[in-house]
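Subject: sequence -> structure tokens, single chain

Hey, anyone have a minute? Need the predicted structure for the following. Not urgent.
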Amino acid sequence: MHAMKLVVVTAGLTQPSSTRLLADRLAEAVVRRLDGHEAAAEVRVIELRDLAVDIANNLVTGFPNARLRAAIEAVTQADGLIAVTPIFSGSYSGLFKSFFDVIDNTALAGKPVLVAATGGTARHSLALEHALRPLFAYLRAVVVPTAVYAAAEDWGGGGDPFTDGLGERIGRAAEELAGLLPRSAPRQSPDDRPGGEPGYDEVVPFEQQLAALRPLS
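Reply:
Had a minute. Here:
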């Protein structure tokens, strides 16, 4: 089974943090859905708090060190991305924005992305739509329709594991991201297939296609 690369970027500043908790729940939900589609994923979590100094140095010097370069490469080479930030002053955190500032603005083109955020109050939930979604639209990523916001009251006291609809939103967003991830098997040559028949990834010359359409004499 071909394993996809799922990278989780979380910008929580404390340890543990509700931002990391939400990121983990989203990753687990995506993996479960992929498993239901008989697909596998390798999950890598990038904690931006551990890279804060590296990101600041990159902004000043223009060059990433080895640790930051590895994180950037993981994000740009991922099949899918989950990006989670705390909301400060009605928008994403400065650390979150700074990380994506040091990534080339064409590197995420066409990449499926699930965006999510945490905050102290539900009043900041629209930051997903007026801040995060435009950011990744500018980077030309493919953002799934459902963005997930978790306020302080979402953690505990409800009927499902994540309370009051958060679990449902996590599941819906995970299903959307899983549906966008590539699940194709590695290419095979004709000799590898039963009977040596051509596969869908082979190109049949136009002349050959045209000859097949001519009536037999």
